[in-house]
Automatic annotation (TrEMBL):
The keyword Isomerase does not apply. This is Response regulator transcription factor. The modification 4-aspartylphosphate is found at D42. It comes from the Bacteria. PANTHER family: TWO-COMPONENT RESPONSE REGULATOR. Residues 125-190 form the HTH luxR-type domain. It holds the Pfam family GerE. Keywords: DNA-binding, Phosphoprotein. InterPro entries: CheY-like_superfamily, NreC/VraR/RcsB-like_REC, Sig_transdc_resp-reg_C-effctor, Sig_transdc_resp-reg_receiver, Tscrpt_reg_LuxR_C, WalR-like. Residues 1-107 form the Response regulatory domain.
Length: 191
């Protein structure tokens, strides 16, 4: 799998492969020493699983952003990864363009969730939820495209603080817990 990823990513001039690891302790040690902008991380690593690696990255306040690349498609794994600090969740079955798009989105400060997983965040009961305003829908669509609050504010001619407030309202109205869930919701609703 790692050789295949390296081959795919070697075709993209803006991506540089710094190293690889077959287990969690080595992945964490390499992340500490190489300090990559983006780490591609599987959840099922021996020695120290992907969630433990993400928890250490967060605890140590490393600036590396994490793209989970895994076969796990269950809601618990997706939610756990996002809560432990993953910035993207991509399936091993996704095509190369989707993986590269996720890497660039994360490197630019955004989030990404595989289109195949967007339905994981669909809530059972949406009838009694407060509808989103047109401005909130505009912002949700831009978050879904991986834009950060600052860029959204520039594009819409509003402050970054106002964008963040709208994002808080969106999350409250939809019952979402983080930006990655908002990305998934936006994809699911084709924004």
């Amino acid at each position: 799998m790692r050789q295949g990823l390296q081959l795919v990513l070697s075709r993209e001039a803006r991506i540089r492969w710094l190293g690889e690891a077959g287990d969690g302790p080595t992945a964490l040690a390499l992340t500490r020493s190489l300090q990559p902008d983006v780490l591609l991380l599987d959840l099922g690593l021996p020695g120290l699983d992907g969630l433990d690696v993400m928890q250490a990255i967060t605890t140590e306040q490393l600036s590396t952003r994490v793209v989970v690349v895994t076969a796990r498609q269950d809601a618990a794994s997706v939610r756990a990864s996002l809560s432990y600090g993953a910035h993207a969740y991509v399936l091993k079955t996704d095509d190369a363009d989707e993986l590269i798009g996720a890497i660039f989105s994360v490197a630019a400060g955004g989030y990404y969730v595989s289109v195949e997983l967007a339905s994981v965040f669909e809530r059972e009961s949406t009838a009694d939820r407060e509808p989103l305003s047109s401005r909130e829908l505009d912002i949700a669509a831009r978050v879904g495209r991986g834009m950060a609050s600052k860029a959204i504010g520039r594009e819409l001619g509003i402050s970054e603080h106002t964008v963040r407030k709208h994002r808080e309202n969106i999350a409250r109205k939809l019952g979402l817990r983080n930006a990655a869930e908002l990305v998934a919701w936006s994809i699911r609703h084709r924004l």
